[in-house]
Design goal:
This protein is of the alpha+beta class. The protein is 42% helix and 15% strand. A three-stranded mixed sheet has the order 1-2-3. It is flat. The N terminus is likely disordered.
């Protein structure tokens, strides 16, 4: 008996999210951003904080949404995700007024660390050691710079 080598129909892990998942995720992201921006959330930790919802990843059946959040201007993204998790029932109810799905997705919130990673890479690229290495690459073996050679 031969073992099947192809994946199940609808199994998209290797290829990434479908267009349907991407569209639904962007719809949920925009609606949640509007809900949060209105300032109707009755949580002291969230009422006066500017928040960004950078991405929403939907499950293939659109029943689960993972929302990546970060505080604008810096701060504790994990505490922000925990605070949004406490009010996810309210957010889900408000979301049902904004978007129409067959099933309203269950929301989970995670801290978005991509901004921190980008800042770390930026700091690294602008460090004196990297600048020195880049300056050394601008010179060829003769000690002349690329500009001296007419390049």
């Amino acid at each position: 008996m031969r073992k099947k080598t192809h994946s199940k129909p609808g199994h998209r892990d290797a290829r990434g999210p479908s267009q349907r998942q991407l569209r639904a995720g962007e719809l949920v992201r925009r609606a949640l951003a509007e809900i949060v921006a209105r300032g109707d959330i009755q949580d002291p930790e969230l009422s006066s904080r500017p928040i960004t919802i950078s991405e929403v990843r939907m499950s293939p059946d659109l029943r689960h949404a993972v929302c990546f959040v970060a505080p604008l201007g810096g701060g504790d993204a994990v505490a922000l995700a925990d605070a949004l998790t406490r009010v996810r029932g309210y957010l889900r109810g408000q979301l049902s007024h904004e978007v129409t799905f067959k099933f309203m997705p269950d929301l989970s919130f995670e801290a978005d660390v991509s901004f921190d990673r980008a800042e770390a890479v930026d700091r690294l690229l602008h460090s004196p050691k990297v600048a020195r290495d880049l300056d050394a690459d601008d010179h060829d073996e003769d000690g002349k710079s690329d500009e001296d050679n007419g390049d």
